[in-house]
Amino acid sequence: MTTFDTLHDDGVSQTTRKGEWRPGAASRLRRVPVGLGLAWLILGTVVLWAIAPSLFTAFNPLEGVGGEQLRRPSAEHILGTDALGRDLYARIVHGAVHSLTGAFVAVGLGLVVGTALGVIAGSVRRRLDDTIMRLVDVLLSIPPLLLSLSIIILLGFGTVNAAIAVGVTSVAGFARLARAEVVRVRRSDYVEAAFGSGGTFASVLWRHILPNSLTSVVAFAALQFGSAVLQISTLGFLGYGAPPPTPEWGLLIAEGRNYISTAWWLTTAPGIVVVLVVLAANRVSQSFGRAAA
């Protein structure tokens, strides 16, 4: 078979086999869905907000300016100011680190603990499997918000404690999904062949079962990230998250609700940010799920 390269007008090398044209990197990039590209752009922006907020705003998120209270959005304050004269855009940007850190902690806790329980349940004998899954069923029977509030009351208020509470509520979902994937992969022909060729349980689990089971779990983690942002913002709105004057997104919405008739931007702007981050995380999760399928 003859294989040769041709250089097209865009400078991208394309490989042709028997007259077949294969798209290069530029063409593949153009095929990325617009929605997925916007989702990655939104997530990348808020991550940069959390890493280097000073690159996006020069205002102090904690100090107000006299005479600048409840200013409408303008060229100087693009999202307006709050009741203490603090720039709202600066508070949203600096609040990204609190909301995103809490979401990462929550998803990490649920991913590690839930996946470990699911892998154990799907790999061991029936009695231990039944015990673990009954525990998971108990967690699933409790409403997530009620379980989160109960854990926060025990641990105390704060972003980290709120993240731990949200992470505990996601353990059951990760455990059920991980167990289902492990059971599915264990019944595959190549796993049976690995056992038949003399492979130990530990080696087959590490080399074959886990790599082929965790793709769906990673996609679920992306979905849970958006859910974690929403739940942590909800707890912050209820007053169980970061204390004032911390610019956490849920707390920003709560602080602006008393001025919703006169200063609508105080609740609208952080609310839109939360919605966009959740939708972006869900869109990225869908792309991971399609790749896993």
Please provide a written account of the structure.
- The protein is mainly alpha-helical and 293 residues long.
- The protein has helices at residues 25-30, 34-51, 88-123, 126-141, 144-155, 159-186, 189-196, 201-238, 249-256, 265-292, and strands at residues 3-7, 13-17, 20-21.
- It has a 3-stranded antiparallel sheet with strand order 1-2-3, with no helix packed on it.
- A hairpin with a 5-residue loop joins strand 1 (3-7) and strand 2 (13-17).
- Helix 3 (88-123) runs antiparallel to helix 4, helix 4 (126-141) crosses helix 6 and helix 6 (159-186) runs antiparallel to helix 8 (201-238).
- The longest helix is centred in the last third of the chain and has 38 residues, at 201-238.
- It is elongated and about 80 Å long.
Sketch the topology as an H/E string, one letter per element: EEEHHHHHHHHHH
Widest sheet, order of strands: 1-2-3
Q: Tell me the number of helical segments per DSSP (H or I, 4 or more residues long).
A: 10
Report mean pLDDT, rounded to a whole number: 84
The major β-sheet equals:
3 strands, antiparallel
**Low-confidence parts, pLDDT < 50 over ≥5 residues?**
1-21
Q: Gap between N and C termini, in Å?
A: 32 Å
**Shape by Cα distribution:** elongated
The total count of strands amounts to 3
Q: What portion of residues is helical?
A: 55-70%
Structural class: mainly alpha
Strand content: under 5%
Q: What is the radius of gyration?
A: 24 Å
